[in-house]
Amino acid sequence: MTSSMQRIMQLVTKDTSIPKKALEINRDHALIRNLLEIYRRDAADTFLVRSVEQLYDSALLLDGYLADPHQMVSRINDLLADASALHAKG
Question: Per-residue pLDDT for 90 more than 70?
Fold first, then answer.
C-alpha cells in the first residue's frame, strides 16, 4: 500500500498511529559516513543522537506522519548552530 493510500485509510478510521516501515540508508552518503565516524569516536555524542532523530523525523515528514513539527524545527536550529560553529572555526 502506498503512503498516500495509508494516510487516506488512517483518516477514514481516525487512526493516528505510524505504520511500520523500513528506513533505508545509503551507507555511501557523506552524511552517513560522517555520522559513522562520530559514532566510532563517541556513540553517546549528542550531535549524533539529534542528527539521527532528525533523519527519522525528516522521513516521517516526507511520508506525512510527522506529529510534532515544532520539535523538529527546534532540533534543526540546534543542529545548524552546531554546524555553523564548526564551520566558523574553519
Answer: no
pTM: 0.73
Three state DSSP letters for 51-68: HHHHHHHHHHHHHCCCCC
Q: How many helices and strands (H and E) does the chain possess?
A: 4, 0
CB-count burial class (<10 Å; 0-12, 13-18, 19+) for 59: middle
- 69: CB partners within 8 A, 6+ apart: 61
**Which residues touch 26 (CB under 8 Å, ≥6 apart)?**
32
DSSP 17: P
